[in-house]
């Protein structure tokens, strides 16, 4: 959670996190919450508290994707994934962040430019199931929403989908259906 406090954390950073949390949960103004989480992340980076900066950036990425600001979400997820790849204790988390970036890429239809990149990331991070869902199914290229649905069901049978993943996968399915089909 971004709002977890660390010793030595500046008061300004604490205030930005508190304000972001208020916008996030009480006022439900996600754009303003994003702005304050970004400010907190910048302060954390200045304090060389990269773990805390990444936590705030992940909030920004999460909400940016929900607001359909996919390019911003992609950049954040990739940045945090690369940051965590350097830390042996956090390396496993990179898998999740690359997966989320991949989902955002699918939505904006940049699949052809990114398949090789994410295939390499699959090998590096060993995200086999995630890559099977994203890369091995030709459902997107063939506009086959049934094949995509089957790939999602198979993925969900091993790892339950959370609300964010479900939303992103439904948006991908909508792009496969060309915005004309019903989401089942």
- The CATH superfamily title of the largest domain: Tetratricopeptide repeat domain
Mean pLDDT: 75
Task: Describe the main β-sheet briefly.
Answer: none
Shape: globular
Q: Which topology of the largest domain does CATH recognise?
A: Serine Threonine Protein Phosphatase 5, Tetratricopeptide repeat
**Could you say what the CATH architecture of the largest domain is?**
Alpha Horseshoe
Which class do the helix and strand fractions yield?
A: mainly alpha
Query: Element order, helices and strands?
Result: HHHHHHHHHH
Q: Quick one: how many beta strands? A: 0
So what's the CATH class of the largest domain? Answer: Mainly Alpha
Q: Regions with pLDDT < 50 over 5+ consecutive residues?
A: 180-184
Helix count, DSSP H or I runs of 4 or more residues: 10
Beta-strand percentage range: under 5%
* Gyration radius from CA atoms, angstroms: 17 Å
- Our measurement of the CA-to-CA distance between the termini, rounded to an integer number of angstroms, reads 32 Å
The total tally of domains equals 2
């Amino acid at each position: 959670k971004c709002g977890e406090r660390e010793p030595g954390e500046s008061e300004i950073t604490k205030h930005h996190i508190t304000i972001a949390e208020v916008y996030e949960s009480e006022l439900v103004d996600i754009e303003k919450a994003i702005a304050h989480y970004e400010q907190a992340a910048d302060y954390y980076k200045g304090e060389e508290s990269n773990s805390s900066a990444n936590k705030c950036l992940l909030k920004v990425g999460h909400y940016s994707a929900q607001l359909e600001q996919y390019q911003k979400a992609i950049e954040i997820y990739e940045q945090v994934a690369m940051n965590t790849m350097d830390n042996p204790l956090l390396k496993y988390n990179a898998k999740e962040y690359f997966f989320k970036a991949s989902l955002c890429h699918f939505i904006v239809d940049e699949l052809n430019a990114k398949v090789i990149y994410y295939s390499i990331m699959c090998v590096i991070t060993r995200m086999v199931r995630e890559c099977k869902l994203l890369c091995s199914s030709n459902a997107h290229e063939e506009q086959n929403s049934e094949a995509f649905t089957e790939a999602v069901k198979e993925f969900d049978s091993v790892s339950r989908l959370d609300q964010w993943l479900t939303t992103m996968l439904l948006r991908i399915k909508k792009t496969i259906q060309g915005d004309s089909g019903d989401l089942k």
